[in-house]
Amino acid sequence: MMEPLLTMLQTLRTTPGGSELLARIERGNELRGALMALIERAFLTFTRNAVDRYARTAGTDRVTRLKIRLIEQRLAKLIKLHPETKDLPELADTATLAQHLVAQLWAAGASLSKQPAAVSVATPPDDRLTQIKPLQQSLITDLDRVIRANLESIASLGSIELTLKSAEPGELESWREILRDTAREVIDDYRKLGDSLRHAQQSANEIGRQIEVPAGTANSNDITINRPDLLRRIEAEIRRTQRYHQPLSLALLGPDQLDNIRVLVGPQAANEVLRRYLESVTSCARAYDTVSGCTPQKLIWLLPGADAEQGVKALRKAQERLMSSHYHYAGRLRPLPTFSAGVVGYAAGEKPTHFLARAEVVAAHARRVGPSHIESDQRIAPPAASERTP
CA 371, 374, 380: angle at the middle one, nearest 5? Predict the structure, then answer.
């Protein structure tokens, strides 16, 4: 960083008084290098002392001992390789100065826990900021967990790598159990990392949704249900199925225990569950599928080109994804409930109303069977005469 500046300063050497100026700057640069080397060595000494104190007070499990041992070996090597500070007249006693720097580093670390919390003047927040603040705090917490878990996993992987590099051929067998435990710990950490990332993504999506709500607009999570438009969409898919002679299936799914959520947690919480379901199922669907609200407690999923059996498989995949999904309500992250569903395949000549009614019957039976139950109507019974398309 300093080299380009020093090169430019060399152009002043031939100017009046330039040589004296450059001699002073070069001496200052030499002193700067000595001070930086002294600071680096002091920091290494401080780190070694801190790790040593931690090793004497922390737990004694095998994985921790492995990590501490490798860190201590690395620090000893760095201190040994670090060049000694040059003796300069301006630095009369480098040993005393180094001790003073180490003491300053210890004092800085100790003062962190003693700093008083910053005092802020409270201002009356508006409603939207009040709703976003818990989500923001949840996002910060999740991201902090992600960063910490990632650093710990990197440290564990580095410990394994250094052990394998520095171990003698006959020592690997004695390290096998410790390395295996460390690897298992890394795998568990990365699983937790994935969960924290999913939670953080949900918090970020919710914050974005709250921000996009226009100021002064009621923040309702109700899903708009337009039955005539829904029937027209089903009719269009039926025409396409008849034209291309492809199967068509219709699934109706509803969250289990939604009535209990509405009574025990609140109506807005139930609406939020349905909204999150709509988002999650849409993310599982194909680009040409239709996912929409059908009733105040159910969603419809139209699957062109898929029969009832393939519809059941699609719902199983959606169930797997929703197992790890959550919804936000009242500043808390809550797990989404399971869902039960009914799937029916389209029968030739069937009207949209009869097609939808059959799905409602099958979905109602699945709901009576119990949570997470998916039922399909494999029978392709001919529609009643009054329901046939003329």
Answer: 150
SS3 of 390, please?
A: coil
Q: What is the pTM of this model?
A: 0.45
Please spell the DSSP secondary structure of 329-374, one letter per residue.
ETTEEEEPP-EEEEEEEPPTTB-HHHHHHHHHHHHHHHHHH-TT-E
Alpha helices in 245-296 (DSSP H): 258-264, 267-284
Q: Count the Cβ atoms, other than its own, within 10 Å of residue 294.
A: 22
Tally of CB atoms within 10 A around 241: 16
- Lowest average pLDDT, out of 2-16, 55-69, 71-85, 290-304, goes to 55-69
Dihedral sign, Cα of residue 159, residue 163, residue 164, residue 166: positive
What are the tens digits of pLDDT across the range 214-230? Answer: 444 444 445 666 788 88
CA gap 347, 344 in Å, rounded: 9
Measure the CA angle with vertex 381, ends 379 and 384; round to 5°.
155
Q: How far apart are CA 248 and CA 345, in angstroms?
A: 6
Tokens describing residue 222: 């109700």
